[in-house]
Amino acid sequence: MTRHPSGDLGRYLRWALCLAILWAGASAALTRAELYQATVPVTDRSEASQTAAFEAALRVVLVRVTGRRAAEEDPALAPLVANARRYVQQYRAAPDGQLWVAFDSAAIDRWLTQNDQPIWGRERPSTYVWLAVQTGPQSGTVITSEDTSELKTSVDAAALERGTPVIWPSAADLARNRLDYAGIVGAAPATLADLGHRSGAEGTLIGRANGTSGSALVRWTYLFQDHNSEFSGGAVEGINRAADNYAAIFAVSGTLAPVDIEVAGVADLKDYASVQTYLESLAFISHVAVEGLNGDTVRFRLTSRGGAEALQHALSLSGRLQPIAPGDNGLPRFQLRR
Question: Pick from 45, 79, 114: which residue ends a domain?
Fold first, then answer.
């Protein structure tokens, strides 16, 4: 029989939620992309230069938030860019003639929603990068997290621009897995993807470059879920292809509408608070309400963008809520994973 939260239970749930927010904020801050901030050049301190810098920074942000490479040149977004100053929350001078700008994320999301533009939320797949550099006919090196080459800098810059977190192997990781240049080049892509998954990455980029300069040509292999592709291009092409694929799956558009879901495995108040905090953190969800409780299953009513299918795609990303078979009522159901 369905029971609705009342009096004491409701107060306890709110109390537990406050604790969960503090805990979740501390952990999520380590991996969440700073989507609505950008650092751009500014020519001088004049108002005209500042306005131009705000517009340039917003274009960078829109590439990340919509998931589209061409967003900065999209005529549909021109009215938003033209009013960039209105959305600035903070700004300050940065080294080397740069300006750091932070925008009002909620206001930008509202504008994009009202104008039927996609939003790719803060929950994003991380990508493990295996990048081998050929230095001789049968020899080479592997780019690690400690590397300072132009090639790694270019990949990292592209990842920042697209808001796509990347993970590099450390020298210790290579030693532990007994991997060197020959090992990376000769390994099956699925083997390297499995190693990346064990390190917390969802996607995998495997590259073989002809040098360590920023303009090096790279032969890339990209793997994510059931997607597998091979292509050649510069250092940034691997990141761009990965980001394009992620955005095609997880960026959502459309009007807000109610979607009911059920989450099983909610054993106590801590679990409840964790689930509600997670749902409220997603950019495409504007409201979360509890409709009922039945044993260890909670029914939530979400005000969500993109419908039930887009919701299931996005929730599957972190693995915190695992999709399971719908119940007798036909509602989408998820299992809380600890």
Answer: 114
